[in-house]
Amino acid sequence: MRNAIIIDSKDNVIVAIEPIAKGETVTYLCGDQEKTLTARQDIIIYHKLAARDIAAGEPVVKYGEHIGVATADIQAGEHVHEHNVEGRRENLDEKV
User: Please, are residues 10 and 66 in contact by the beta-carbon 8 Å criterion?
Assistant: First the structure.
């Protein structure tokens, strides 16, 4: 049974759609492929966990967009939240 969802195929985080206990199998659909990983921590419903390893300094991607930067290495299955992600606003006025 699926207990998580990935919003966009570019995302490196998935969202728990029910509470997930540490050690439990996380099952989600990515495109038309079902994927699984093991939760490394308890995950509260609607919170994020890493779909793959995310290195410190790497963007955290949800909705296909950067939502912050990892402040520490985050292993697949770990809780992704303000304790290991720093929000960074982009300068939308800056010309490219």
Answer: no
SS3 content of the chain, % helix, strand, coil (to 5): 0, 40, 60
Phi and psi at 13, nearest 5°, equal -125, 150
Residue 40 has what DSSP assignment?
A: S
Which tens digit of pLDDT belongs to each residue from 21-74?
A: 999 999 999 888 999 999 999 999 999 999 999 999 999 999 999 999 999 999
By CB atoms closer than 10 A (0-12, 13-18, 19+), residue 70 is buried
Contact present, 74 and 84 (Cβ < 8 Å): yes
Q: How far is CA 77 from the centre of its chain?
A: 8
